[in-house]
Amino acid sequence: MTGLVLEGGAFRGLFTAGVLDALLDIKAEIKYVIGVSAGATNAYSYISKQKGRNLEIMERFINHKRYVGYGNLIKSKAIMDLDFVFDEIPNKYCIFDYKTFSNYDGKMLVGALNIETGESEYFDKDELDDKNSILRATCAIPMLFPFAKIKNSYYADGGLLDAIPIKKSIEDGNDKNIIVLTRNEGYRKKQSKANKFTYKFYKNKYPKLANVLKNRYIQYNKQLDYCKELEENKKAIIIRPTIKMDIGRFERNKNKLKAIYQNGYDLVIRDKDKILYYLK
């Protein structure tokens, strides 16, 4: 079976949205999807077969103060108004097709980091509720979002540890994978000042989380190397941006975001025959 593995990357995820919309257009129905952070949020519209929905959300709300803005940190302790993004938008404005989503006959997993254990956990699509708690968890960037509570545990951004959840896909029996990355070829993550700060901030209260933050760049680069190895051995197809990803985590420039969306879409259409053959 073939898995579809989706990296996160905040608003760089518009590239992934373009890829997924093109997969819908070429009728590439993949029965195993796993994603973290923005990769997971974009995947939901792929599963519900709502082409263009993620692009529409960006175009309609990118400049809305409740969608993203540092003022929200004061009002709701998150850079996004989470009730607006994960409740009002899917349930009032850009209506999410819960019925088609629930009828999907494949497996969809969303990864999030348990802040107490420092381990990644994966939530099945059937655990979705109308407040989109799973998506709130996988997008909970430390310092910018509150940790999300599911049952009796708290979770942070799924991309902190398992940013490219390829090994989970393989463990689940997928001997072939299509991996969608949101960084350009040759990119290597470096230890950032932000990670050093968050490590110090959390090391006493949440030492396992702090350790993940400290070693994040090492783990991510190892995953990149592993993906490259799979690609070289014909065990994976990697789709990554071919235009410069010179955008911020919460980019406001619509033209830049539309350009990376179009890049993702065009790459799939260009390689349509290759992808469909691979899926056979």
Automatic annotation (TrEMBL):
One Gene Ontology molecular-function label: hydrolase activity
Motif DGA/G per UniProt: ranges: 157-159
Alphabetical list of SUPFAM superfamilies matching this protein: FabD/lysophospholipase-like (SSF52151)
Keyword terms: Hydrolase, Lipid degradation, Lipid metabolism
Active site: residue positions: 37, 157
Superkingdom classification of source: Bacteria
Name of the protein in question: Putative esterase of the alpha-beta hydrolase superfamily
Natural source organism: Clostridium saccharobutylicum DSM 13864
